[in-house]
Amino acid sequence: MCQCLVLSCRYFIMADSIMSKAATMEIPINSNGDTGTLPEDDSLEQDLQQVMVSGPNLNETSIVSGGYGGPAGGIIPTSSIKGSTSNHSAVNSTEEVSRGVAVEKLEGVKKWGINTYKCTKQMFSERFGRGSRTVDLELEAQIDVLRDTKIKYENILRLATALTMHFQSMVQTQQALGDTFTDLSQKSPELQDEFGYNAETQKLLCKNGEALLGAINFFVSGINTLVNKTMEDTLMTIKLYENARLEFDAYRSDLEEMSLGQRDAAAMVRIEMAQHDYQVHREKYERLRSDVTIKLKFLEENKVKVMHKQLLLFHNAISAYFAGNQQQLEQTLIQFNVKLKPPGSDKPSWLEEQ
């Protein structure tokens, strides 16, 4: 800052001396009143060149903020102004991107609101008998059969689960009773044989009961997969199909109402847009209807295959257990590849109990 002040003072002192020298120079006048040519003054020209050389450089000008005596940090180079301009343009581009995203979201909300209004209007019109709906009688019948079948299979699953819980409780009771008979046979010499026979019988029943439990659990697992995964997946597709059907009928009714109205230029533009929306929802409806038809077909085939296996397993295991045929029961488990859990596998470990 001090260097800048010294240079400025030097510049003004030299300029003042040159101006005073030029003012005191004599201008000759000839006899006709014309001014003569000034004699060349080398010292004046040298002084001017020195001023031009030692003067401030306009390419490296600075803006001083804070006035005289301010801190050196108040000097703002002009190059920083260019940087601030580029930063400002970058901020403007970011704002434009954010504004574009906001407009896109607003358009999405607008379309969702219009679609919801049309579908709600169509739904109430169908409920009160004022509007028409598209019906596929064959497909609707198959959907009703599937829903009724799912309710019945859910009842089978609930009863089979209850049977598993009750039978597991009985097996645990038989195991405890067999352990008690074994203990009493060792402590009662006079009844050792009787307690021993009963202990062996209860242990055999417990072993066969665990095998039957494995078969019933396998049956329950198969029914649960069929009901809560396979059937539920098909019903989710049916729900999408029904929503698409409602949207299709809503836009179809809207197009029919516009077609019955005026046919001016603005109305024709609206009819053309409604025709485009109608075509889009019609394609979506037909695509989902095809998906539902295919899934219903595969579901029926899968249901027959799964239930044939599960019902045969359930029948053979129950019959072998209550007939006391241990060998047939074991063969049934091997035939259907049923893996039995080792005893005590369901109990938590000592680390989990802590």
TrEMBL record:
- List locations, semicolon-separated: Golgi apparatus membrane; Golgi apparatus, trans-Golgi network
Q: Which UniProt keywords apply?
A: Coiled coil, Golgi apparatus, Membrane, Phosphoprotein
Q: Which PROSITE patterns match?
A: AH
Coiled-coil positions are 271-302
Q: Which CDD domains match?
A: BAR_Arfaptin
The AH domain sits at: 134-334
Which InterPro entries does the UniProt record give? AH/BAR_dom_sf (IPR027267), AH_dom (IPR010504), Arfaptin_fam (IPR030798)
User: Which GO BP terms, alphabetically?
Assistant: intracellular protein transport; regulation of Arp2/3 complex-mediated actin nucleation
The record's GO molecular-function terms, alphabetically, read:
phosphatidylinositol-4-phosphate binding; protein domain specific binding
Q: Which GO terms describe its cellular component?
A: cytosol; Golgi membrane; trans-Golgi network membrane
* Protein name, as recorded: ADP-ribosylation factor interacting protein 2a
Native organism is Sparus aurata
Name of encoding gene: ARFIP2
